[in-house]
Every structure is written in C-alpha cells, then in structure tokens.
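Anyone up for a design puzzle?
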C-alpha cells in the first residue's frame, strides 16, 4: 500500500476543518499521514487539531506564525517526511475517497526517478456542498503557458518523491503561490505534468475562503490595472530568476531559453521580440494573450 503525506495549511478554519480532515482520513487503498501547519489562527482551529491528533496517530500538527498560504505550504514541504507521494490540501473542501489513489494510478505509470505532478478538475460547490459547476483545468499545458498564467489549483496537486525533493532543495525568495511554483519547477526540469479531466474534490466556496475561486467585479479590475501599469515588479522576470537560481543545472534547453529571454527582455530588444513572436508563448485566451503582449511591450511582464 502506497504511503502518502497530505500537507494541510490552516487559518481560522474551525467551521469546515473537521469535515475536511475526515474526508482525508477516509482515503481508500492508501496509507495516509496528515501533516498540518496552522498559520496563526485566532479561532478554535488549534483546539480542533489537538483533539483530532489525540484521536488519530497519523495526524501531526505544527503551530506556526502567520506567513500567508504560499509560505505556509512551502514550510510544510520543508517539514515533510519520507513518503512515496505527497498532496496539498485546503482546510474547507471535501475529498472523494478515491482522490489520492486515482492520482497515484496515473503517477505510477511515470518513471519514479523523474519529477511528476498530477492535477485534476474541480467540482465547485457552495458552503452546503451544492454543486455550482465542474471546473476543468484550462491552460496551455507547457512551460511557456504556465509562465504566463498559472492553471494549477493546489488542492488537486499530488506529486511524487522526486518532485518533493526538488521543491525541498530550494525555497525562492520571490514567491507568488506554492501551486504555481511547483508546477513551473516540474515543467522547467522536464518533469511530467498529468491533467485529469475528472474531479475528485468538492471545492467549497464561502465568505471565509482565504483563497477563492471567484474573483469578480471592480476589485479584480483594479488589481489587474495596478499590476499591469502601476507596479514596478516584473513578476515573470522575478520567477524566471528564481528558477535559474534554484535549478540552473537541471533546466531543459527549452526552459533555459524561455527563462533567459524573460530575464533579458526589459533591456534587450531581441529578447523582447523573441517573447512576442514565440508561438508557444501564449495561453488559450485571446484576451490574456493581448494583455501579456502589452505588458511585455511596457516592460511590466
């Protein structure tokens, strides 16, 4: 039976936490070890974790300072143990009993010495678990596409020991989210990324979500405008630099070319034209591609 460590970050998650942990512990055909890091909760989350850990020897929890979700999950990777597979979990979802074994069946087909990452669709539900929609993984499934726009949802990610060891070996100073980082690393070193069109998770949406599926209206428009025109931070340049710093000797030839052109483009016209004309450097959205090209022209990408 495969041994799997589930990495769960909590923050003020008292309302749905026990239901989620119950669904994690009920995973079929695998041996589950649950490592929880609390990110500075102010509610009853710690008390719930204490009680659950007393009742279940395969639950370990850490009380931490507030780092935010990205850093909290990266700290969990740092604290993770020697297991065959690893999976990220959010605090308020509900897992299908076959979520993990379904991922492992696909990951087992890959060379275990090579990094491999599994992603799946989501059954988006409301706070009462009523289905809202089935959300497929949507993206240009290659390194170039992932560098433009992250298509990974962390709570669906299951990965092998080879990828865990890579992520464990280097923690970037510049980090947007843990799920996009691990996906980009996997592509950059030539790992396998598996996309499953089936959903094995009820992805709960409610007012208390730390990270939500829906992000609509004026606030979204305001944030996009700020990123595109006001911020001096070149997000993809910084990500490219981190990938090069952490994994320069392991990068594929294609990833190295993309990374070098991203780093150079603000000062190098040839690199800028390479990005603008590269047919693989795109997403499935015409609107996103237009915004990307404008951001590159304005040196804001």
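Challenge accepted. My sequence:
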């Amino acid at each position: 039976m495969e041994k799997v460590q589930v990495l769960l970050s909590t923050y003020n998650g008292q309302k749905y936490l026990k239901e989620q942990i119950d669904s994690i512990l009920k995973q079929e055909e695998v041996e589950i070890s649950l490592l929880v890091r609390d990110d500075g909760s102010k509610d009853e989350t710690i008390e719930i974790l204490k009680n659950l850990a007393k009742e279940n020897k395969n639950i370990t929890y850490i009380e931490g300072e507030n780092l935010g979700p990205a850093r909290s999950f990266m700290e969990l990777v740092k604290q993770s143990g020697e297991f065959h597979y690893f999976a990220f979990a959010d605090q308020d979802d509900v897992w299908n009993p076959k979520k993990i074994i379904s991922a492992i069946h696909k990951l087992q087909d890959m060379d275990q010495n090579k990094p491999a990452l599994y992603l799946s669709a989501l059954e988006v539900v409301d706070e009462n678990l009523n289905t809202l929609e089935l959300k497929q993984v949507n993206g240009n499934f290659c390194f170039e596409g992932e560098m433009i726009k992250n298509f990974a949802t962390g709570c669906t990610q299951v990965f092998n020991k080879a990828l865990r060891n890579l992520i464990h070996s280097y923690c970037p100073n510049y980090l947007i989210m843990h799920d996009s980082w691990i996906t980009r690393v996997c592509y950059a070193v030539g790992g396998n990324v598996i996309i499953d069109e089936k959903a094995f998770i009820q992805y709960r949406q409610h007012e208390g979500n730390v990270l939500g599926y829906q992000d609509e209206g004026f606030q979204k428009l305001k944030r996009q405008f700020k990123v595109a025109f006001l911020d001096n931070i070149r997000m993809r340049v910084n990500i490219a630099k981190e990938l090069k710093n952490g994994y320069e000797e392991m990068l594929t030839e294609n990833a190295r070319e993309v990374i070098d052109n991203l780093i150079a483009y603000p000062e190098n016209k040839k690199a800028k034209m390479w990005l603008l004309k590269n047919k693989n450097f795109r997403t499935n959205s015409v609107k996103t591609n237009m915004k990307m090209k404008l951001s590159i022209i304005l040196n804001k990408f």
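A detail worth pointing out: The chain has a mean pLDDT of 93.
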